Amino acid sequence: MKNQKYINGKKEVIEEEYHKQINVFARIVGKRPGIILGYEKITCNGNEGKQEYDPNVGIKLIEKLKKQYGTGIDVIVGDTIYLNEKVIKALKKEKYIGVFRLKENNRKIYEDAKGLFKIKKSNEFKYKGQKIKYWTDIFEYRKNKVKVIKYIEQEEKEIYVVSTDTNLNEKTINKIIHARWDIENEGFNELKKGWNMKHCYMADEKGIDVILQMIIMSYNLWEIYLYGHLHDFENSGITKFGYIDEIREKLYVAKIDILYFSSA
Q1: Is the pTM of this model over 0.85?
Q2: Strand (E) or helix (H) holding 78
Q3: How many structural domains comprise the chain?
Q4: SS3 of residue 61 by DSSP
Q5: Domain ranges, residue 216
Q6: CA atoms of 146 and 152, how far apart (whole Å)
Q7: Does residue 3 form part of some domain?
Q8: Which pLDDT value is given to residue 242?
Q9: Residues 130-166, buried b or exposed e (16+ Cβ, 10 A)?
Q10: Which residue has the higher pLDDT, 180 or 186?
Q11: Average of pLDDT values for 2-20?
């Protein structure tokens, strides 16, 4: 890649090499410990769109999860990009339920649901003291029967969701789709900001894989320690980074005590 840089006050065009590895991750959501179950690399050249590659990589990851965890997984929840005929076929093959956000990129089913729900009567349920209105119906999505639900929550925010299991109830689907946000807030953000996963430590592809696996193992051990060993951590009101600060302070005090004892 050619970049313009100022070197000794002069503008020069220099060649720079960038290394990037994009991955699709699977993580437990909605309960603790939220360990990472696996990942799969996206292999693509240049700046091709995610739509072309992510669903195919998602299918590989679904197959890998089935091989490693068998029937230990019931539901796979994903963003709208994974609402794809091939992904649904892979889920059905492995006997998993799929729950996905529905947005305008799946225009036909989105517009059909939007139009129908305008004339259909809504229902509601209460969740955590909040009234949630919803509309629901069964649609055909590329030769697959799916349940589509529109939720209106606080501040009149609309959420459209698709479930491959037409018998799954609307309250459960709502909980599942909200649990998906764990992977954004507690997963990706924490790994990028707290674990520096975004940084490329070396150019070698195998080396990148080894470092990535070490980060994932460390992250999983940290989750198991906090939410498995420290039984009251989830309700303690302390953040993960706050707990790290507490440990750091205790180690610092312990170090001072040892130094003081040694000098005495």
Answers
A1: no
A2: strand 75-78
A3: 1
A4: helix
A5: 14-222
A6: 20
A7: no
A8: 84
A9: eebebbbeebebeebebbbbbbbbeeeeebbbbbbbe
A10: 180
A11: 55
